[in-house]
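FAQ: What does the model actually see?

It sees only this:
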Amino acid sequence: MPARLYLAAPLIEGADLTLPPEPARHAQVLRLQPGDTVVLFNGEGGEWPAEITRMGGRLDVAVRVGVRQPVSRELATRVSLALGMPANERMDSLVEKATELGVAAIQPLQCARSVLRLAGERAEKRRAHWQAVAVSAAEQSGRTQVPRIAPIQDLETWLAGMADDPATARHVLSLDPASAPLRGAGGPGAVWLLSGPEGGLEPREEALARARGFTPLSLGPRVLRADTAPLAALAVIAAQEAPA
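And it is asked to produce this:
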């Protein structure tokens, strides 16, 4: 399978392009040569086969763009995750796996029980890093869109700023096993899934989410880690869309 490269730029049949640094680095790491074929995508849907026309010095790679292929490997349901950021490297893995499973957007949150605390320049550096992780996962998994990683917010601020939208279902992954099970959350349209950090959401935070239209859902009697619960929910929705 040809290598897939993401370019945040318009792609036009027959155009000769010099690749930006990141996709150029990717092409050089793969030891591609002139005449080799790659697949380009820009996150707006579809793919473009392209031929390597130059492999120069440091990060000097050029391609000729082919005819757009109208493919899509996205979920019918636009699933967005709002989650209390897990600590250490678990957030990197969560972003990667959520992208592979088809998430449309990720909103990192700081909650009352959050271990990871980020602000200012450090927060923006981590967001940019997670966006790069999402790009790499989209390239690898065959997606034609790249999920947006939003700037970090605290939970209450984010909830207060959410616009009312009756067309978008809202669910909070609750630690209460008495909550309704996560079934039938997918389907055409959009869904927000809210998941807490290590230790889960505090009761007050879950109450605030319910006040903003979030319905509590359970993933079963077992307690899942902060980086497992949202992925499990995504997998359930993706499985509902899989062909029989």
